[in-house]
Batch of 2 targets.
Target 1
Amino acid sequence: MSTEPEAPAPTPADGPSSGPTRRTFIATTSAVGGVVIAGGAIGGGFLASDEADAAPAAPASRVSLTVNGTRHTVTVDNRTSLLDLLREHLDLTGAKKGCDAGACGACTVLVDGHRQNACLTLAVRLEGAKVTTIEGLADGERLHPLQQAFIDEDAFQCGYCTPGQIVSGVGCIKEGHTHSPEEIREWMSGNICRCGCYVKIVRAVEQAAGRK
Amino acid sequence: MYPFEYTRVSDTKDALTAGRRGGRYIAGGTTLVDLMRETVERPETVVDISGLPLDEVTATERGGLRIGALVTMSAAAAHPKVRTLFPVVSQSLELSASAQLRNMATIGGNIMQRTRCTYFRDVTAACNKREPGSGCAAREGYNRSHAILGTSDACVATHPSDVAVAFAALEAEVHVLGADGQRRIPFADFLLRPGSTPNREQALRKGELITAVEIPALPRPLASGYLKVRDRQSYEFALTSAAVALHIRGGVIREAKVAAGGVGTVPWKLPAVEQHLVGERPSASLWAAAAAKAADGARPLAHNRFKTDLLKRTVERKLRIVGGTK
């Protein structure tokens, strides 16, 4: 996010004793293709440090995956969700943590082309997977047609659910469930918008799907 | 979430070995990861079975369908054979969860999913299913969404699956693989009523692995469908639901398969309704008379008395739609 301060210089993040903060960890791991050593302290992302301290040797695994076209090989605490891997380790904060329980859709990403809830996806399971997040949709400076449609239709207010809505909408269009506003509503129901922008979200998906 | 060991297996033999050692199988993970985060589930080892070759839908020789345990809900629902032969299965799947969850969750995992009872999910509440002997907070608590059929003093939680209701109606079989080889479990025996041991939910032995769900051949033509009644139109669990399949020939109902969801501690097969229909000619009065038996034996709780009537109306309406009368 643009309001975030500059990350401090990288420090080793090899276990609980080094006490990495979120910020230093991001700095350590945002190098493209870098190897990440993630001990128990940062495994759960927002895990309380006392819980992590109680399990200093939390099992970790190595996994290689491609995110928005860039290959990453990381070692993560087995508990790490794809959402936390993206947000806390790879500095891709577009996918949002709403409910962290698969109930809101704010974390929606594409895994091997299919929309999924990143919060319920364990990162260690993604060996060889190709992940696309909201950051990977635009073609350089040119927005994805659905991103442009969200702007054209003014399909958001606070914007928190928007990355998930857009990625989910890309999946919805790809799946071909855009034959009517009713069908779009049904197949987009996994994305909750607290501001209630549903009418415009449906219009945006219609526009990008070429129905309008 | 508690720490856990993670292991990935690529053949069923390795899976069974890991399962016998107490490893917990993970397929789509949509229930397991959620409950691990809530610390309701605390597996020491998670065994990733997503690489096993159990992801195909195949027609059986006799005209039934075998759906591999790792077929995702979305793939099963969209499969041409499932759509044409058993619309009730496709409909029940597409009325479940969200598109994202259906892309992750599998058929085997779906029938293994655990109840959505809020007290089960709340580790500070009494729950005999989560912690045997601790009591049941739902009995005296807020129980609007809970079961009215198949309950016990120990547990009143519903089974949340929709497709399991279709499988129960169609009398599917669950194929499982264990140390002693393959066996088939009739769907009616697969999910266990709570009784005094609500912590035991499936008729699986330690380490057994679900490989497929097989829907038997049924006489054609077969009209079928699923109706789900809930508090919002999409992305919500059932208050009541009905899975109906009817074989009507010569103007007479020859076969009737009916089960209900949202009302039972397990998917609730309705043999009395089925028996009332077989041999009769479709009519508005027949649907009503058959559906009147849908809630036989119901024992409502303080907040879910409405389910008794709602269940009968749900079954009647779906019989009318599938049966093709106005």
Note: The two ends of chain A are 33 Å apart (CA to CA).
Target 2
Amino acid sequence: MFEFLTPHQAILIVVIPLLASPICLIVRHSGIAWLIALVASWISFAIAINLLNQVTTVGPISYLLGNWPAPWGIEYKVDTLSAFVLLFISGISSITLIFARKSVYFEIAEDRIYLFYTMFLLAFAGLLGITITGDAFNLFVFLEISSLSSYVLISLGSSRNALTAAYRYLILGTVGATFYVIGVGLLYQMTGTLNIADLADRMPELSDTKTVLISLGFITVGIGLKLGLFPLHVWLPNAYAYAPSVVTAFLAATATKVAVYVLLRVYFTIFGYQIFNKLVIDELLLVLGLIAVISMSIVAIFQTNIKKLLAYSSVAQVGYMVIGISAVTVTGLTSTILHLFNHALIKGGLFLALAAIFLRIKSVKIDDMAGLGKLMPFTMAAFLMSGLSLIGVPLTVGFISKWYLILATLEKGWWPVAIIVLIGSLLSIVYVWKVIEIAYFRPVPDKSSKIKEAPLSMLIPIWILVTANYYFGIATDYTISSALSAAKELMGVAL
Amino acid sequence: MSLENTIILSIMTPLIGSIFILLTGKWPNLRETVTLVTSISMFLVVGSLTHSIMEGERPTITLLEFFPGLNITFTVEPLGMLFGLIASGLWIINSIYSIGYMRSHHEKNQTRFYFFFAISLASAAGVAFAGNMLTLFICYEVLTLCTFPLVTHSGKPEAIKSGRIYLGILLGTSIGLQLLAIIWTWNSAGTLDFKQGGIFDNKLTGVTISILLFLYMYGIGKAALMPIHRWLPAAMVAPTPVSALLHAVAVVKAGVFTVLKVIIYIFGVDTLAGFTEDNWLMYVSGFTLITASCIALTKDNLKARLAYSTISQLAYIVLGASLANGIGIMGGGMHIAMHAFGKITLFFCAGAIMVASHKTEISEMDGLGRIMPFTYTAFLIGSLSVIGLPPLGGSWSKWYLMLSSVEAGYIVFTAIFMVSSLLNIAYLMPIIGRGLFASPKQNPQSKEEHIKNSNFWMGLNFGVVREAPPLCLLAMFFSSLGCIALFFYADVIFRLLAPVAGLN
């Protein structure tokens, strides 16, 4: 009955959450707001699945907003990469929202809950918009929508530190967005167009000019801030640590991934991989990625707040993705794209499990986790199993991305890089096991003997993610073939 | 049922069993029955493959495509057949032993114990029947992870510390080195399938082979080459049945089995033989062999001594493989079987002594042989087999190993094998000597109380004899019988392994 909407899928996936957001604001009722958010997110998810199917069978989809032809009007473009990213953003959001009801009720004052869902939907719509748009300036608009709403989301955290964390993110995030828009402005000055495909067409003849190279520098720094690229990551640990648990899970699983997506889009679609012959950003990324992997993993080991521990681990994981980009090969990009997806599942699972723990023990300090293996067996088992995936044990998704990343470095003959990547995963054993040992081997303290297992409405979404970690770690065909064809598109290799 | 499905069934049997173990956890008798039934059915399933393998069939089943061009595949070849048979066969004996031991030792969380035990066996079967290096690696890692709860079973601080060493070394070496080696192999050879003669087709130079061999050999931490052997003594904090089956059979044998697989099917014996000047592996394993034996001499704790003995015996197998000739492969392969039976017997005895007389240090065991005659008889048989004296199985494998060092032209290793056998005598025989001939240092005063507290199933008592639980004794009886039987039926193993070693 909705067939007439099918051609408009590309816009509906963004517009539905975008319109649902003010409705949440109007109803002012926490339960109904949650339901609206949930439904909107699941509809987007369904559309995303449909889009990926369509893209893989028919080929890229182009949608002209208001029927204004590109490059004058705004074009929405779905290729394998964007469909893949849309899929996991909407998937993670849908699962997180099932989880959110109880967690949000516990962490946020009831009269603000409807605001939470309003902002959540805005951030969600923003992330989807960034991914689907085929227009460099429109991308900036969505970047700001998602950023501004995530500042609000973070500041809703129950501790007062959330305010300073959000403020810090606001400052740095704005700097990042400004750098991006300056870069896009320079490109516009040189080419007179903002359409990504159009930009790509005109880029080869201009790629020798200083202006274009400078704009590349601005965009790299701007997006680098958003994705928490070392050493531009300073906002990230506190923002993750003090945000409401659900927000942490959602942002950790999606926001940095979308930033990596933008980086891929800019480098490989707009500028083309040949640009790295002119400006050695690839080597810069490689070095920063390696430092991130090692230094942030070590920092993570010494954290006592588990949210921060996982946040630092996220910065390290971004390092892996950046190393994959810096290889500038199909295998390297495949590893990055796979890790976008895989890391979303891993961190989604870990942060949701942590949110369930926070609901029960009201703390995310490592020492308070003593005995949780007995008290909350299902939650802790989920944490353990996602942790194994983070380490990259075979049969988990973490193993798949690690395999491709190491393969990419070996193809390039980068021995030391391969070794550093492996050292990074050994370090992750240390920080994951630190938590596991305390939860399973420390005796249950008296004060927490009454702690119960998390409610089913939380366990189910957690275990959906954990199962996905193993399902996609075993039946790898779907993700690998999607990532591989996306990487080939980016590198301009015949499919 | 087709052979292909039998392979899957042999891995599934313990997995299904583990679910039933969980379900029947509240009724110990039922739970242990399930364990026994599972182990017997697994052995029968694995055993049903033997005939076809001896006939030369190599059933293969591919489950799914893991990476483009790289599958999860299971196949049965002679070496895997041997390992599968040993692991599943000894699991039956070990289950009998576990029931006696765990009950009279009043261990907690026994359901968890039996559950992870069954899963470990499933992954050991996976290692045995893996059809390519990726599949083997996956099962290898699962084996590491699911034995961790067994090692840390008691949950005491020293168990946690040991668990950390166990996991740190095994996971660290496999992810840090072995995975790198595997991806490197995949990148340069384009396949990870096990193929007689190796998969590199002379693509690698001497130095590259050396480095790759290093990554593999030290990536396979379970083979316990020095200096990454520390996990094995650390793992001895586990309950004795775990030490017996996992750390004398399933886990360590999975390690040396992987070593053999890599040398035979990834590098190829001939490739390795072609670069004898750079073959550092011989020297490292020779060093491990002697040093571990010497360390064993210094250990007073019985289980620690057996652990170092295991390290030394594993090095026999690695040395045999690295000598790179057919006889060495035969000796190494046979030693997997011979050592498994010998060492499991010794561990059973150590556990029996611990249960019946609460002693762990050898210096406390003076005169114990007269109190525990059955245990000491079994210990004698196990020891002689580990030393390699006829009429026990161990003599054959050591014979072939020594022959192989002569064949390869390294008399120095022949000498090492001989010296090590003397060292074996030096660290095993005094235990028996002290048990039989030394007089006990103090009179056992707790005797009356002990008898009062125990019933028939918790320990045999008559006259001066205070023996271990009957189920433990039964298990020891079977395993020592195995040591003797292997002497007379070693030709079966020879015929099984001959195609792999190229000796037919």
Note: The mean pLDDT of chain A is 89.
